[in-house]
Amino acid sequence: MGLAVWIAAYAALEPFADSALALLALTRQTRLGEAVHFFIYDTPKVLLLLTGIVFVMGVIHTFIAPERTRALLSGRRLGLGNVMAATLGIVTPFCSCSAVPLFIGFLSAGVPLGVTFSFLIAAPMVNEIALALLFGLFGWKVAALYLGLGLTVAITAGLVIGRMGMEEHLEDWVRAMQGTQSAAFDPAKPCWDERVASGLAHVKSIVGKVWPYILLGIAVGAAIHGYVPEDFMASIMGKEAPWWSLPAAVAIGVPMYSNAAGIIPIVEALLGKGAALGTVLAFMMSVIALSLPEMIILRKVLKPRLIATFASVVAAGILLVGYVFNALL
Fold first, then answer.
1. Residue 100's beta-bridge partner residues?
2. pLDDT at 178 exceeding the cut of 80
3. What is d(CA 52, CA 151) in angstroms, rounded to the nearest whole number?
4. Which pTM value belongs to this model?
């Protein structure tokens, strides 16, 4: 019944937005009307997508607990461990900041440094929320390409950092804690009522926390969609923009902080104004995978040289993703 209601609500989004605009005596031929229509249409659309995927992932998490994740990764070597860590990062709905405690837990359970970094990069950058929203807004080809390239960045960056042997640049208290915690997990399996309850709890927790960011992101996107001139956006972030536009987009994104749900409406609006997909996605990836708050939290765990190495390697990977997207699409 819940699925039927969700499908019916999603199918009614366009008529609902058109009717609401008519009640406001606005038309899409005006800048204000186009901005308002974008906001009315995208707000329930993003919230529906977010609610659906978070519920499903909440159920999946009952099969993949943090303790089970640590047990799976503990003792894994570089290579296979990086692939496993990056893949597990996809099914954990963490922003860059909330992934840090689990990152510390991995280190304490004896998971190699490079493997933990693959998880830390993949968890916010290639999470299920980003994939679901990209699929819903842009189609499976864009979502699949983003998934493949994002995983490549996470795996490669973890391998590079692991090969550099930078464990000495962990803070002393973290190094003293490494390998001291057990990676064992409770084998008890919850029943399906508990799994469904977990899904609902995830919806309440995650959607309840991020909806203000979603509204803010959609409001910004609506303003861009309705008022920012197409020629201006094309000149800054379009396919014919100068080579430095992509690095500039990444540099602008790093000081910002948002999650995938909050930033994707802005991505949609920028693309609607003629911005290049690779440049916009690079901007998005820098916001959610290299945020300034994340760096501040990581400073409690990592020494400055390791933070700089992490940021540099990930930024290089994001730039590569951006250039590949721009070249192929």
1. none
2. no
3. 23
4. 0.61
